[in-house]
Amino acid sequence: MTAPPLRRLPRRLVVKLGSSLVTDGQGPRARFLADLAGDVGHLRAQGSEVIVVSSGAVALGRGRLGLSRSQRLDQKQAAAATGQPLLMQAWAEAFAPLGLVTAQLLLTAADTEDRRAFLNARGTLAALLKAGAVPVINENDSTATAELRVGDNDRLSARVAQLAGAELLVLLSDVDGLYTADPRLDRDATHIAEVSALTPEIMALAGGSDRSGPGTGGMRTKLEAARIAAAAGCATLIGSGAGERPLARLIGGEARGTHIDAQGNPVRAYKSWIAGTLAPLGTLRIDPGAVKALGDGGSLLPAGVLAVDGAFSRGDCVAVQDGEGREVARGLSRYDAEEAVRLIGAKGREIAGRLGYSRGDALIHRDDLVLG
Predict the structure, then answer these.
(1) CB 279 within 8 A of CB 306
(2) Is 174 labelled as part of a ligand binding site?
(3) How far apart, in whole angstroms, are the C-alpha atoms of residue 72 and residue 340?
(4) Is 89 helix (H, G, I), strand (E, B) or coil?
(5) Which regions form coiled coils (predicted)?
(6) Does the annotation list 353 as a binding residue?
(7) 347 labelled ligand-binding
(8) Is 108 annotated in some ligand binding site?
(9) Distance set, CA 188 to CA 50, 85, 181, 256 (Å)
């Protein structure tokens, strides 16, 4: 059964490709990558922004170095260091005929869990997408320790969807979705086209992680990724990368897959996290003009700041108060407390002159701000 076609194309989506699709273990699967690049180009032409999360570096590196499969961290990291340039070259060649530029971004778990690194990664992604590049993301396997690794690119892709504010996560591999049982072992297994909630019963259908192929994930990791994405307001599509134009057919409802609903939308989920989870570590007191600007949907600019209290770092949550001390908003500061003090009353063009650098005109960008 095919997954239902999307009611509308997502504004931003993350597409994750498993190792078994990207490489045959010896080299990249150039035809598949060209097909996928064509699908991405078609989506971009219709107004969607696409971020690619690609496995394959370790498998390509093993093939180039002649290494056998091993769980030893040093060998895996050596393979990743060798294979990552090969992987990016393959993607660059796939997108070049379309006139699209690829950009590499290597992440670790810390980049998605630490607020400062989170904001940096999100800002980099936003800048790349604005410039028209296709971000190609992988875990930084060549340097990350076991403690710092996300562990598989299914979960990494969900974290990327979360930090990018994506509306859809597409997990492409060698499986075409979720079944009531393992279809390789049970002829009566039934395909599940749509999941409204990831209940314990649904999670139990995934069984254990299948690690027989060149990748490191299985259906369980895909459902765990979908759970992360759903909590961030992002829906998930799980489908097969086999055949021509797999991404376009899956999104169009022409290929078998499993659609997993989101919980709300990305903006609401992100702002709920700011408002309900993070304790403010500082306070910014602002003038009436700034209060009005925030109410009209604007960002908090240094020009409207009257006072700064607390010892907060960049990326920390701060409370925003009016002149009477009433909290009117809270959000994530793009500057630390010391920098914020130096920027009191500054106009955007004056920031670099006062600090010697600039992280943008806003002290708190409207995307990172919740009104009280």
Answers:
(1) no
(2) yes
(3) 46
(4) helix
(5) none
(6) no
(7) no
(8) no
(9) 37, 44, 8, 17
User: What is d(CA 286, CA 291) in angstroms, rounded to the nearest whole number?
Assistant: 7
At 33, list the tokens: 């990558």
Helices (H), ranges, 10-72: 19-22, 30-45, 57-65
pLDDT, tens only, 55-71: 999 889 988 988 888 77
Annotated binding-site residue? 218: yes
**Are the C-beta atoms of residues 48 and 9 closer than 8 Å to each other?**
yes
Where are the domains positioned within the chain?
12-270, 278-371
Would you say 76 is a known binding-site residue?
Answer: no
CATH superfamily name and code, 278-371: PUA domain (2.30.130.10)
Alpha-carbon distance of 71 to 75, in angstroms, equals: 8
- Is 220 annotated to bind a ligand? Reply is yes
pLDDT at position 21 is 92
Contacts of 66 (CB under 8 A, 6+ apart): none
Question: HSE (CB half, 13 Å, CA atoms) of 10?
Answer: 28
CA distance linking residue 204 with residue 188, whole number of Å? 17
- On whether 297 is known to bind a ligand per the annotation, the reply is no
Both structure tokens of 121: 């990664």
Tokens of 181: 């049982």
β 134-139/102-107 pair status? parallel
Q: Provide the total of helices (H) and of strands (E) in the chain, helices listed first.
A: 14, 15
216 is in an annotated binding site: yes
The CATH class, in words, for 12-270 is alpha beta
Taking the CA atoms of residue 248, residue 249, residue 250 and residue 253 in that order, the dihedral angle to the nearest 10 degrees is 120
Q: What share of the chain is helix, strand, coil (3-state, %, to 5)?
A: 40, 20, 40
Residue 88 marked ligand-binding:
no
The CA angle 91-92-96, to the nearest 5 degrees, is 120
Summarize the confidence of residues 158-174 as an average pLDDT: 92
Condensed to tens digits (0 to 9), the pLDDT of residues 68-101 reads 887 788 888 888 899 999 999 999 999 999 999 9
Residue 153 labelled as part of a binding site: yes
